[in-house]
Design brief:
The protein is 59% helix and 5% strand. It folds into 3 domains: 79 residues, Orthogonal Bundle (Helix Hairpins), CATH 1.10.287.110; 55 residues, no CATH class; 110 residues, no CATH class. The protein has a two-stranded antiparallel sheet with strand order 1-2. α6 packs parallel to α8 and α8 packs antiparallel against α9. The protein contains 9 helices and 4 strands; from the N terminus they run ααααββββααααα.
């Protein structure tokens, strides 16, 4: 990276500090920005991705500027010699002590071999730091999976007969209505489930919610069959509506 002497370098710009900032100032600014760009506190998917990207950039900049040796290299100064004779330091992988490596996790600094390293847009990281970063997004409680299943089941069980009853009388126009309204119904269902679980996210929560929705649609359709003698899922209109609703709801629950 090349920069003019009158412009702060990229990492300094990311942390909003001057090139001669002290370690304490860099640390203070890093902590402020990490709190500012907290994707776990953002609901909108686009805003959450933006916050995650900004936070990753802040972490990358801090990983370099908080390390005196890496900062010196970044600033174009002579790098400290790790071992006598100018030989590079040889490390041993924290998970495989018998393997030599020259690679460190760019977040925690732990020595890692290539089998333990995960390549990210901001460099190599250890698997523990990757899981820690993922846990920022996955903060669901133990009971949230069950709540998502039950809410999806109840809403779908009530909605399926109503939708079958409403759309069944429109014939061909029912297909058009199903095409237009299906995605919106899925988004509404996803928001209901998310509110029920306190807007928390979990790795398995979407699958539980999807299982509840499908179970609810089947139970609601059976109830509709018992009341009217017609099984709504045999209707192309109902299949289209259900498919679009599920396709819309599932990504929003991830």
């Amino acid at each position: 990276m090349t920069t003019s002497s009158t412009e702060p370098k990229e990492y300094y710009r990311i942390l909003d500090v001057s090139p001669d900032a002290s370690p304490a100032e860099i640390e203070r600014q890093y902590r402020r920005l990490v709190k500012l760009y907290a994707p776990e506190h953002v609901d909108d998917p686009d805003a959450r991705r933006y916050a995650a990207e900004k936070r990753a950039a802040v972490e990358e900049a801090y990983a370099v500027l908080s390390d005196p040796a890496r900062r010196a290299i970044y600033d174009g100064k002579p790098a400290p010699v790790a071992m006598a004779g100018g030989e590079p330091e040889v490390l041993h992988c924290a998970n495989h002590p018998n393997r030599e490596t020259m690679l460190r996790c760019n977040k925690c600094g732990k020595p890692i071999c290539m089998d333990c390293a995960v390549r990210t847009p901001v460099g190599y990281r250890c698997q523990e730091c990757i899981r820690e970063q993922q846990n920022v997004y996955f903060n669901a409680l133990a009971q949230d999976n069950l709540v998502a299943f039950v809410v999806g089941l109840v809403v779908a069980a009530i909605g399926a007969p109503l939708v079958g009853l409403l759309l069944g009388g429109f014939g061909f126009f029912g297909l058009i209505i199903a095409f237009i309204a299906g995605s919106g119904a899925g988004s509404l269902l996803a928001q209901i489930i998310r509110r029920a679980v306190g807007r928390r996210r979990g790795r398995r929560l979407p699958a539980f919610a999807l299982a509840g929705i499908i179970t609810g649609v089947l139970l609601g359709s059976v109830a509709f069959l018992l009341l009217t003698g017609v099984f709504p899922l045999f209707s192309l209109t109902m299949l289209l509506f259900t498919g679009l609703a599920i396709a819309s709801a599932y990504p929003q629950l991830r």
